[in-house]
Amino acid sequence: MGDHVLVETSSEPVIGEVRRPRRAVPEARKDVLYRRVLRLATEHEAREYRDRREREKRGILSAQAIVRGKNLPMKIVDVEVHPTARRVTICFGSDARVDFREVVRDLAREFRSRVEMRQVGARDTTRILDGIGPCGRELCCSSHLRTFEPISVKMAKAQDMPLTDNRLLGNCGRLKCCLLYEFSTYQELRSRLPRVNTPCQASCGGGGCMTGKVRSLRVLKQSVVVGFPDGTEAEVPLDQLTWEGRPHVEIGGPATGGPPSPLTPES
Questions:
Q1: What is the DSSP letter of 261?
Q2: Nearest alpha-carbon partner for 191 in 158, 161, 214, 162
């Protein structure tokens, strides 16, 4: 770790720094394209790489000062100095359209290079800045995500999460990317359950059934809370429940498992 190496890219080989030790590729990711490490960098190449990183750090501060002087509503996120050509790419974030023609001239004089301005969104801004998520691990967008999939409120609702909870938002202020990870599992599990307020019958053992309505769902437990005409409620496993469109429970078959347990009020 910490060594500088030459890595192939789609355009040309570039110098990078080893951040993690070598490890086996998981079976599930063996079809993913990984860039090949060509060789160790020479001392001259490593020194140039370190010098360029220092120039980029100073460049961020310089660009921020120039932008502040122009009172432009933009945030300088990153400065990338091209290793060979006299070109500097400046990434910035802004919630509005910005006329940066004048500031580009000042930046070109500052860097003595051709300046390319690139506007990035909130998710890309967070990916570049990196950080630690609420889970205590490095942000997904910085560590392993290569593309950003659309994240919607529907995914949070499917996982029974309160929509007013700020914990649904990531460091970028947008819905967390990890809402997507278990969404398909919740969809599959929820598709096996009846809808709320659906009339149903719960097996009570001994060949009897009680008729009621579905009051709420327990998606991960694969059970539902059934309300009965006498005002009582009980949590019923899916294999002891039948409703319109689902075959009746066969008493004594593999689906039976005793009567439903009444719900007790929380203390």
A1: E
A2: 158
Same domain assignment for residues 172 and 213: no
On whether residue 130 sits in a domain, the answer given is yes
- What domain range is 171 assigned to? 123-188
151, 166, 188 — which closes off a domain?
Answer: 188
- Looking at the 3D structure of the chain, how many domains does it have? 2
CA distances (Å), origin 9, targets 13, 34, 38, 250: 6, 10, 11, 61
Distances (CA, A) of 36 to 39, 40, 113, 142, 264: 9, 12, 31, 20, 60
β-strand partners of 89: 80, 116
Question: pTM of this prediction?
Answer: 0.70
Tokens of residue 254, six digits? 């593999």
Pick from 167, 232, 162: which is nearest to 204 by CA?
A: 232
CA pair distance 155, 162, nearest whole angstrom:
11
pLDDT in 10s for each residue of the chain, 267 residues: 788 998 988 778 888 888 888 888 888 777 777 888 899 999 998 998 999 899 999 999 999 999 998 888 899 999 999 887 688 999 999 888 888 888 898 999 888 889 999 999 999 999 998 999 888 999 999 888 888 999 999 999 989 888 888 889 999 999 999 999 999 999 999 989 999 998 988 876 655 678 889 999 999 999 999 999 888 899 999 888 888 767 654 434 444 444 455 555 443
Please answer whether residues 5 and 16 qualify as being in contact, where contact means their C-beta atoms are separated by less than 8 angstroms.
Answer: yes
